[in-house]
Design brief:
Layout lengths: L2 E4 L2 E7 L5 H14 L11 H4 L10 E7 L2 E10 L4 E9 L8 H15 L4 E6 L4 H9 L3 E3 L10 E6 L2
Length: 161
């Protein structure tokens, strides 16, 4: 996977492995807490909580490393008809604004295309301004809002093909 230099540090994006799981869970829990959201690894956040584990059903799981430390993550779930859902996109607070999220999302789009996905979906919270700006800058378009039980209040879609 490609590397990108930023502020004297190297961002490396790679597939998640089992040894990454504890750090992924830590990043997700802290990131959600920053927005006043409680993590639910036994519920809504179970799929990202399984990232890197052998029994994970996620189609794609990526982590971002900065100076050999996992500082970001995301995953994609295969849907039907060439579609997938991107979720669990989180970057450690100390590493936000350094290009980690953009590098991670860029590699996710490349991996999704390589896997044959043509359309990506994601759900988010309208309070996650930086993430929304990133999505929109990369061509994601607002979609119909998700149902209340989704745990979010805003949806986006991206045509890859």
């Amino acid at each position: 996977m490609p590397e990108q230099r930023v502020k004297q540090a190297t961002i490396r994006i790679r597939r998640a492995v089992q040894q990454d799981n504890a750090q992924i869970r830590k990043i997700v829990a802290a990131s959600l807490a920053d927005f006043g959201i409680s993590v639910e690894f036994s519920g809504l956040d179970a799929a990202i909580g399984a990232a890197g584990l052998p029994d994970s059903s996620n189609a794609i799981e990526l982590v971002a490393e900065l100076d050999d430390e996992v500082v970001g993550c995301l995953a994609l779930e295969a849907l039907s008809d060439g579609q997938a859902k991107l979720f669990g996109f989180h970057v450690s607070q100390a590493c936000r604004g350094l290009g980690v999220g953009r590098a991670l999302l860029t590699q996710a789009l490349t991996a999704a295309r390589q896997a044959g996905f043509r359309v990506l979906h994601l759900d988010t919270w309208d309070s996650m301004d930086s993430a929304i700006r990133l999505y929109e800058s990369m061509g994601w378009c607002a979609a119909e809002n998700p149902p209340p039980e989704s745990g979010t209040n805003r949806s986006y879609v991206l045509q890859l093909a």
